[in-house]
Amino acid sequence: MRIDKFFSEIGMFSRKECAEKLKKGMITVNGVVVKKGDFKVDENLDEVCFNGAPVLYKKYAYILVNKPTGVVSATEDGRDKTVVDLLPDNMRKLNLFPCGRLDKDTVGLVILTNDGVSAHNALSPKRHVEKKYYFEVADPYLDEDILAIEGGLQLADGYETKPCKIERKDQTSGYITLTEGKYHEIKRLFGARRNKIVFLERISFSKIQLGDLPRGEWRKLTDEEEKIFTGKI
Length: 233
Ligand code: URA
Prior knowledge:
With 233 residues, the chain is α+β, with helices and mostly antiparallel strands. The protein has helices at 3-9, 15-23, 89-92, 116-123, 143-151, 185-191, 223-229; strands at residues 27-29, 32-33, 48-50, 53-54, 62-67, 97-98, 107-113, 131-137, 165-170, 173-178, 197-205, 208-209, 218-220.
């Protein structure tokens, strides 16, 4: 493949940016400076370096964003900003999509990828992937609410929710861990107990943690996190 395609496919540089880096002699292939965008590389065999550091070719990208409120979990939207709009231009060409959805007013961890198979598997109910949220409710919740929600309850549409786990923080806040992801599930669980979610933040997806990534920012998954997401470990 062309060297400029190599860099644009991994989301590192646009073709135009790549042309500038090539011109400045910043890119080498097998130790030799390359100046032309149409130079052909074998992405599996050749050693491509930028500024002396090896650049690995990757078929898929795995990105974690910290979704702010008001942003929608979609690839495009006529009205609202989407999670993909949080990424720089060169990343937006990678056809990334969110793996699962958070409500517009929910904040926190969303994984974006262009690996359809792994995203599908990660969301499959069979995988029982744990998703942990920090929540705040309008009114104090009782231990009997915890028991009822944890055991699984019937929502207004008749759906029986799967068991989950709640860890109390104080009277009106805590952590809830689900292994499924039904529409508005946490809001409906607390709604079924006559309470109301007033703040919801997803803080982890399996062993992948949101950590201290600032709201609205993004980062690549680490190699270890990629293996977790793709089910390799
Ligand atoms: N449950 C909800 O109610 N909303 C979300 O965004 C995620 C889980």
